[in-house]
Each structure stands twice: as C-alpha cells, then as structure tokens.
Write a structure and sequence with these properties.
This protein is an all-alpha fold and about 650 residues long. About 65% of the residues lie in helices and about 5% in strands. A four-stranded mixed β-sheet has the order 1-2-4-3, with helices on both faces. The relative contact order is 0.10.
Length: about 650
C-alpha cells in the first residue's frame, strides 16, 4: 500500500468514524430514554394502568426533551474539543505538559532527538515538525499530532529520551513519522475531538457517582426527591460507562491494526529492526509506557498503550508487536535485558553522545536519495528508506554552522529566508537589502548581511533543506510578521524582473506551509475532482515542467510533455504551451489540481515523473519545481538522488 492508498484509507476511516460515533450517540440516547421511562413508569398510579402506546404518547415531550438535552451535551462537548484543537499538534503537546526542544539546545539528549527528527523530516520531504519533551512522564512513550505536515508536532517522554539509545529513538520517531505521512495523525486528532463529547458523559457520571457516594442516604430517606436523585445518579453512571465503552471500542477499532503497519514502516525507514524492537522490549522491562496526563483521551495516538489493564486496548500486546518484528524472540530474554537496563541506565547520557558520534561516522554503500523512477517514487513516498535518511543526515551535517544556527533560531529564521533569495549580482543584491531594511528594519538587514559575510553562497542542494529546518522557528513568529515576510519574499523574487525556479519553489513552499500551519484543521490532503475536470491545468503543468527541463530544445520539451500526457491517458499535444508568465499560470493550475482525489493525484505524480525523466536526465530546475508542486499538492516528496541531476541553467 503506497502513500496515496494510505491517505485514501485514512479518509474512508474518517467517514467510518462518523458512522460509529452516530451509533454510539444513538445507543446513549436509547439508554437515557429507557431509564427516564422506567422512572416515569414507576411514578404512574397502579390503579390506573395504561397501554404502552398511550404511555409513550403521554410522555413524548419528555422523551424529546431528554434526547435533545443529552444530544446537546455530547454535541457541544465534541464541538468544544474540536475547536480547542484547531491550533494543531503543538496544542496537544502543550496540553499534555510538553516543553519545546529549543533549536539551539546544548543538552546532548535533546540535541540527539532534534537531529533524528530533522533527518527523518528532510528524508521524507516534509517541514521539520515542532519537537516536544513530556518532562513529567517517566514511562517510555511518544506521539505525533496535527492536521497536516505543516502543523505537526512530535513529542517523546522524558523516560524515552533517557532510556533509549539513538537507534531505538530513531525507530520510535520513524514509527511516528509513519502516522504523519499516512494520514493517521489527522484521523487521531479528529478522533480526540469527536469522542470528547461521549467521554464528557463518562466524566459527568463519575462526578455524580462521587457526589452520591458522599451524600448521606439517611438525609434523603423519606424524601420524595430521593428516588429522583438516585435515578439521575444511576442514569449518569450507566451512560458514563456506556460512553467509555463506545469510546474505547471506537479507538480500538481505529488504532490496533495500524500500529503493526507503523512498526513495519519504521523498520522500512531505518532498515534496523533492532531499533524499534529494542524500544518495545525496554518498555516491557524499564518502567512501562503509562502516561500520567490524559491517557484516556490520547491513548490511541501514543507509541504504546498509555494506561494499564484497559478493556479494548488501543494497541496490540507488546509481545505480539515484538514477535511481528523478530519472529524468533523468546520472552526469557526480558530477564537479561532488565538487568542490563538496571546497570546502565545512569550511563545513558554519555552513551547517547557516543552513539551520535558513531552514527555520523557510519558509511553505507552509495548513500543517496531516491532514484527518480515513477514506480520507486510512488512506493517510497511517505515511506523513506535508509538511503534517504542517511542522505538527509549527511545534508544536515554539511550545513555550515552559522546557517544551522540561523535556521534553528526563531529570531533569525526570517532573515535566513531573505538571505537564501539574495541575487549574485551586486546591484540587484543592494536593492534587495534595501527592501529588507524597509520591510523588517535595519537590524534585520544587518543580520542578512552577517549571514552573507559568513557564508557568501550556500550550496544549491542545501537551500530547500534550510527552509525546512527553519520552518519551526518561522511558525512561532506573529501572524502579522509572517504576512510581512511573505510580501517581502515576493518583492525580493521580482527584484531582477524575472522569477527563476528556485525562487518560485521557495515562495510557494513557504506560503503553503504557513497557510497550512495557520489554519491546520482546514488543510485537506485531497478533494473530489477527477483528472477529466482539470485537463487544461494538467497540460499546463506538464508543459511548464518540460520547458524547464529542455529550455533550449523545444522538440525535446514537446516529447517530454507528451510522454507525461500519455501517462494520464490524454491525447498528445501538437505544440508546447507558451512559456511566458509561467509562475502565475502554474499558481492557477495548482490551486485546481490540489482538489484532485488521492488516486488521481497518484496518476498525476506518475505523469510528472515521466515528464522530467524523459530523455534520461533530470536537471535541478525540474527537481526543485517538482518539490514545490508536491508541497502545494500535499504530496510529501522524499529526498531525491542528486547524482541523477545534471547542471542546467534555470528557466526565467
């Protein structure tokens, strides 16, 4: 199952979730009304019996009012929780007591965590998510939360940070990235909002049970309201347990099987089954995975079960997950592992630093990104392999220290974006620096000059990764400042009177990530359109890609475009679209193409790859344009193999 099929499955599961929620609400309403009718029946005079039909007709208004009140409590609870989560993954992490891992942290364990997450994000072709540590949680656990890759957050417990070595931590992070890339994360946060209304009934039931337990029965004995009070208490307790039952049942239905899939994806990402298997084993012997904060609400999104002894557990048993990765595992090994963890737990901080050094020095045969082949790309999208992860690690390691510090600093991230857009020609560059001073102030202009003096020109392959590394810092800037920055980016791009491919790619990726992060719940990975509805836009997109791949050879560009059209089962074109004004035309085309269904997007991506690989080579302009197109269309593009790219002048 590839990225698009996973996304389509997540979309279908969301519909199924709504059906299950409706059934749960219906069951709760039925129980509440039955209890109300029993109470009313007990209050009917025995000497005047009535038929069932007459009884229901007499109390129809009560039944309606009870249903409206109960449904309103559930609906308002779900709506309230859904609205409270509109801020995305960081909101969930903060509510669970998470603290942000500072980009420039000097703590070796947090630095190791940030490196692992950055490598995984760059390899996957998505913005670096916010990174949190749950400081008050001793158990070994983690989660990813958010609506889209632009507002995603990855959090690990302090227990995981201090107990797992780098390989095991990488396995856990890879497991969470599987949830991010396969659409599970979006489903998880929606599940939190929808089920909260049901769980509210459970909370009310527990509170009333506590109240009735502490109210003396003797004080209410003989009181005519005693029966009513007890009936309300019993009803709320019953409804509360029914709510818990359905909430756990729905989460178990949604969650259990996908944990096996995420474990398998983690093995595929890292090619080291010992990593995630080792993390699962340590959960078994080193304190478990219990979460103190809200395990009932967030249990379905954790790496391992956040509570003990629950019916309808959201995760398969640990032993089953370990044996799925290591079929020959013997539980007797737990004894030796427990002793080993006990002896070495205090020394893990130093060991983490050594593991980081060894990981940096490791070599692998022909490390690199993903080869530009349509079948390989579709298979690896959303599931980067060890080649992409190693290539990402090498890219991150090659970033000059001043640029790395700027990318990790919220105070320097906007200036880094401006620095990436500076023109090599001195006269144009001076005009751009003046624009920076006008828009952001003299201090920002000075910071851009400092970056330029320390590192005159970054390597081309580092420019997009630097933007992805800077994105967590950019998200923390006020909304007005980001609007100013986006407007400034457009001015910097047009300072020389033309737009090259890198400038277009940076601007569109930045704008898309900011938009998705600002309104995460409105971000949708797919729509309802079919390719037949957007033939003109698809033709224009393929033509623009083909033109930038063969700017000096119109015949070769036409052949490449027609190869892409053939992959879409569309008729060949007799001539190329006019290249003039391609940025505005591409913007208009992408806006409509983003509303394609998931499987239609898969077919479009295949056509894009066929187009840019036609003729046996791919130039950097095509690769950068493909990355921007995939970002706008919500398709995470894995790190590509730079060896296949040949230098070429970028289109104007």
């Amino acid at each position: 199952m590839n990225f698009f099929q996973h996304q389509d499955r997540a979309r279908n599961r969301t519909r199924w979730l709504l059906v299950l929620f409706a059934l749960a609400v219906l069951a709760i309403l039925t129980v509440v009304n039955l209890v109300v009718l029993l109470v009313l029946g007990g209050m009917e005079p025995a000497e005047h019996p009535v038929s069932m039909g007459e009884f229901l007709a007499r109390h129809g208004g009560v039944i309606l009012l009870t249903s409206l009140l109960t449904g309103s409590v559930i609906g308002i609870g779900s709506l309230y929780r859904t609205l409270s989560l509109r801020g995305g993954g960081a909101v969930v992490a903060w509510q669970l007591g998470g603290s942000v891992v500072d980009p420039d942290t000097n703590d070796p364990l947090r630095r190791r965590l940030r490196n692992v997450v950055e490598e995984m994000a760059i390899a996957s072709g998505v913005p670096v998510p916010d990174i949190f540590v749950l400081e008050h949680e001793d158990g070994i656990n983690a989660f990813a939360a958010g609506y889209s890759t632009a507002d995603a957050a990855v959090a690990v417990t302090r227990g995981a940070l201090e107990t797992l070595d780098r390989r095991e931590l990488q396995g856990v992070v890879a497991h969470e990235f599987s949830h991010i890339l396969n659409g599970d994360m979006r489903l998880n946060i929606r599940l939190m909002g929808i089920l909260f209304g049901i769980l509210v009934m459970a909370v009310l039931g527990r509170q009333f049970m506590y109240y009735t337990h502490h109210v003396s029965v003797r004080r209410t004995r003989g009181n005519q309201g005693a029966m009513a009070v007890l009936a309300i208490g019993v009803t709320l307790m019953l409804v509360g347990y029914i709510g818990l039952f359905f909430g756990r049942w729905i989460k178990a239905m949604v969650s259990r099987q996908r944990e096996f899939l995420a474990d398998a994806s983690a093995v595929q990402f890292t090619r080291e089954p010992e990593g995630i298997a080792g993390a699962l084993k340590k959960i078994s012997v080193a304190g478990g995975s219990v979460l103190r904060a809200s395990p009932e609400e967030v249990g379905h999104m954790l790496f391992a079960d956040g509570a003990l002894g629950r019916m309808f557990a959201t995760h398969p048993p640990l032993l089953d997950r370990i044996r799925a990765i290591e079929p020959g595992f013997d539980p007797e090994e737990f004894h030796a592992l427990r002793e080993r963890v006990r002896r070495h737990r205090e020394a893990l901080r130093a060991a983490a630093e050594e593991a980081t050094r060894r990981e940096t020095e490791r070599t692998a045969p022909s490390p690199g990104g993903l080869a530009l082949d349509a079948d390989s790309l579709l298979e690896q999208m959303g599931r980067p392999g060890v080649g992409q992860i190693l290539a990402a690690a090498l890219l991150v390691a090659s970033v000059p220290r001043p640029l790395e510090r700027a990318a990790h600093s919220p105070e320097w991230a906007p200036e880094l974006v401006c620095y990436l857009l500076l023109d090599p020609e001195a006269e144009i560059r001076d005009r751009q620096l003046l624009m920076v001073a006008e828009a952001l102030g003299g201090e920002s202009e000075g910071q851009v000059r400092q970056l330029l003096e320390m590192e005159p020109w970054p390597a081309p392959e580092l420019r997009i990764p630097l933007l992805e590394m800077a994105f967590p810092g950019l998200k923390r800037r006020p909304e007005r400042e980001m609007e100013t920055l986006l407007a400034l980016v457009e001015r910097l791009i047009h300072a020389d009177g033309r737009v090259d491919v890198f400038e277009y790619a940076l601007a569109r990726m930045l704008e898309q990530h900011v938009t998705d992060a600002r309104n995460p719940s409105d971000s949708a990975p797919a729509g309802r359109r079919r390719l037949g509805d957007v033939r003109v836009q698809a033709l224009d997109l393929l033509g623009i890609l083909a033109h930038h791949g063969h700017p000096e050879d119109p015949d070769a560009a036409l052949a490449a475009m027609n190869a892409g059209l053939s992959a879409l089962d569309m008729a060949a074109a007799g001539r190329m679209p006019v290249p003039d004004g391609w940025p505005d035309r591409l913007d208009a085309s992408l806006e409509r193409l983003d509303a394609l269904k998931q499987m239609e997007k898969q077919q479009l991506l295949r056509a894009l790859v066929v187009t840019i690989t036609h003729g046996g080579k791919t130039v950097p302009a095509e690769a950068e344009l493909l990355r921007a197109v995939c970002a706008v269309l919500h398709m995470p593009l894995p790190l590509l193999d730079a060896a296949q790219e040949e230098p070429a002048a970028e289109g104007s």
